[in-house]
Amino acid sequence: MFLSFLQLLAISSLVAAAPSRRANHVVHERRSVEPRNWMKSRRVDPYKVLPLRIGLAQQNLEQLEELLMTISHPDSPSFGQHWSPERVAEHFAPSEDTISTVKDWLTTEGFRGDRIRVSPSKGWIDVNATVSEIEALLSAEYHVYTHPSGHEQISCESYSLPDHIREHVELIKPTVHFKHRIPDGPALHKRDNTTKLGAPSKFKFNGPKTNGTVVAASTPFPISTCDQFIVPDCLRELYEIDYKPKVPEKNSYGIVEFTPQAYLGNDLDIFFGLFSHDQEHKRPDLVSIDGGVVQTTFQDFDLNAESDLDLEYAMTLVNPTKIKLLQTGDLVEGAGFDNWLDAVDKSFCTFDGGDVPGQDGIYPDPAPGGFNHPESCGIIKPPHVVSISYGQDEDEVPVAYAKRQCHEYGKLGMMGSTVLYASGDFGVAGFGGFCPNDIQFNPDFPASCPFVTAVGATQITPGKTVQDPEVACETVIISGGGFSNIFPMPEYQEHAVKKYLHDNPPPYTAAQYSNSGKVRAFPDLSANGANYVVALDGQLELVFGTSASAPVVGSIITLINDARLAHHKGPLGFINPLVFYQDKFSDLFNDITSGSNPGCGTNGFTTAVGWDPVTGVGTPNLSKLLKAWVDL
User: Fold this and answer.
1) What is the pLDDT of residue 333?
2) H-type helices in 162-282, by residue range?
3) CA dist., res. 339 & res. 350, Å (int)
4) Which of 187-191, 327-331, 339-343 has the lowest mean pLDDT?
């Protein structure tokens, strides 16, 4: 009888400990898709302590697009009047009411005041709590997920908040955020086509591709062979790049790379020896973010191609303007997109490694050899142009996380930065051709954010010349593009996108893509992405990808900024309203009207006159852009 009573008591206590949705709780975040190749194996120890981080709702975010348009639209009297970082931080900081409301809620739930901390930026509230406390607080269940490799991680499928609290909270972590791939380390530097080392190390690396062609160093590269070999002179002819920087010391161009992705100095010198002699032995200015290092211990295509490609072409095209290499993440943990954003905007940064587990690097990193220092917050002024050739599938990104990050890109635009992201290399499909449910198109993030400039890829048709129209890239890679499943359509692209949908209605259902006609469409513009000659691991190879297109467009914008600075004007900042401003600027781009971006068992979308979801508005013409955009 006594043993039965204890057993009954134990069972009743377990039932009482199991979280259940409270009457006034509403689901705040739910994971959109279950992680592939991970199994839910067991509940988390209820006494395990987790660092709970509550991201507070920011003020005035509903004004962000309007404010950005007043600064970025060519007809606005406030065009180019960018805000200071301090003004941006103050305008969007969470209100005192939000801070006090969330703190009062935690106190009511039994958390003492000395356990609750507010970050210096006022953007986050931090409280260390046991799993049982968090489950009760959020009406959530935390499980351990196991990968066939033996790796484990903690996550919950959803969590809920009291209805009166939801408006004060953007996201909470750790909760639904999930690292969809197993962690890699330098010892795992040999990879296949589905698991790649590199960064952001928290998700798949969608970097440049190769067809395995090695090019002899003695090969001549006349303009007549640009359909086979893209070299800097080909790009100069294609996009009329004939401008020598006048005030390079006033300009700034940042290239983001994620450790262990790294350039090799010898590769740069081989390339410069062929195409830019006065830059031999020149190197980019290294900005080490969260322990970022240009490692040379491990070398192969997947580790060196991205950085070599980006730097060889960007440095050559904007010479003598110095490139800032924003090398992000240590060798042990790596990094994600939030990490480089922390470095250029202190107000975005949190404390004690407050980035999102499963998506970003969490610093200090106490692991042996890790960057065991505070995260790099506001260590560099935002460059005038930043090019990032990395991305991840939108379906793997928690919605609240994506929106929070996207807002940050809008803020950088308000501060005068042009942020460029490659649009992806698998057409309408996700990384490696993955399509949810086998039919759903899988947009690329952050390219799908309306506050970045997404760059697609074109190519010269074999047998054609630089004087002939380019086509959408479908050689080795396929230009990524389509319609977001997260973000609404921004005002600046409404006319162009609605015209495309009216004139070229896609033959697909809502089960395949977001066909409401009211969502963000991408890419915004394009540049060549095929047959780049790159010095790589001591030899010349052909490289393909929107990874090539993004830094080329970044170089063109950097040259325009130089001309504006020489005329005592500011940088362009957010350029999308200019790109889509058809009345004045439609002839500044080379329209691409041939090709498509197949994927998910379909032909994808087709190119068309004007904007299309394959190549955007087309490729830039620098000589025309200089005349139009320098005068603004």
Assistant:
1) 83
2) 163-166, 232-238, 265-275
3) 11
4) 187-191
Contact yes or no for 605/481 (Cβ under 8 A): yes
C-alpha distances (whole Å) from 38 to each of 66, 177, 589 are 42, 14, 45
Determine how β-strand 253-258 pairs with β-strand 385-388: parallel
Residue 204 CB contacts under 8 Å (≥ 6 apart), including other chains: 180, 181, 196, 392, 393, 431, 432
Band of pLDDT at residue 567, cut at 50, 70 and 90? very high
Provide the residue type at 263 as one letter.
Y
Residues 350, 54 contacting (CB under 8 angstroms)? no
For residue 304, what are its two tokens? Answer: 């060196």
Distance CA 46, CA 60 (A): 38
Check: CB of residue 416 under 8 Å from CB of residue 382. yes
Q: For CATH 3.40.50.200, list the domain ranges present in the chain.
A: 202-629
Question: Looking at domain 202-629, what is its CATH homologous superfamily?
Answer: Peptidase S8/S53 domain (3.40.50.200)
The reported pTM is 0.90
Place of tokens 């799993």: 131
Cα–Cα distance measured from residue 265 to residue 273, given in angstroms and rounded to the nearest whole number: 12
The three-state DSSP-derived secondary structure of 275-344 is: HCHHHCCCCCEEEEECCCCCCCCCCCHHHHHHHHHHHHHHHHHHCCCCEEEEEECECCCECCHHHHHHHH
Count of CB atoms situated within 10 Å of the CB of 182: 15
Cα–Cα distance between 106 and 581 in angstroms, integer? 48
Token output for 223: 């303009």
Q: How far is CA 351 from the centre of its chain?
A: 22
Catalytic center residues: 306, 310, 547
What pLDDT score does 586 carry? 78
320 near 245, Cβ under 8 Å?
Answer: yes
Buried b / exposed e along 106-126 (16+ C-beta atoms within 10 A): beeeebeeeeeebbebbbbbb
Tokens 């900042």 map to which residue? 573
Specify whether the CB–CB gap between 617 and 611 falls below 8 A. yes
